[in-house]
Amino acid sequence: MVASSRGTDPLTREVVELIGAVVARYHEEYEQAAGRHALTGAQARVLGLLALEPVPMRKLALALRCEPSNVTGIVDRLEARGLVERRPDPADRRVKLAAATPEGRQTAERLRDALGFAREPLGQLTTAERTVLRDLLQQMLGTQTREGTTEGG
Predict the structure, then answer these.
(1) CA–CA dist 126, 75 (Å, integer)
(2) Which of 16, 19, 77, 93 has its Cα between 20 and 30 A from that of 26?
(3) pTM of whole model > 0.85?
(4) Is the pLDDT assigned to residue 43 strictly greater than 50?
(5) Which controlled-vocabulary keywords does the entry list (predicted)?
(6) What average pLDDT score do residues 6-10 get?
(7) Residue 117: which domain range?
(8) DSSP characters for 90-109?
(9) Residue 5 in this model has a pLDDT that exceeds 60
(10) What domain count does the chain have?
(11) Backbone angles phi, psi at 25, to 5 degrees
(12) 21 touches 13 (CB < 8 A)
């Protein structure tokens, strides 16, 4: 049982605190890595998303859970640095896609490589342990499919 009339059980509290500590450490390392590239955390996150594939501006706003005008400002600053470009969507030329330039993809890769906090401890887990952890996290987020992969990915 997760909760009782008197509150959350000690194990659940401990897990929540550990998740919070992991998130805080990851966020701190991510901000430091972004800063080494003269980027804000939000700019680094947008660049990371765009390095995977070109994305419509509205979809970026949804992924970042922010207003489209905020995304426009972030993309403007990344575009001014030559890390991102805007282009028409081949499927609908009225829609603008934001896409990482070759330099932007290289910068995003260097950012990913700089994030050792999560990668190094995860590397100490067996493949089976990492799979269980992934599946549990997906279950918590409600993104697990029957095959154990994330929806949409």
Answers:
(1) 39
(2) 77
(3) no
(4) yes
(5) DNA-binding, Transcription, Transcription regulation
(6) 78
(7) 24-141
(8) TTEEEEEEEEE-HHHHHHHH
(9) no
(10) 1
(11) -65, -40
(12) no
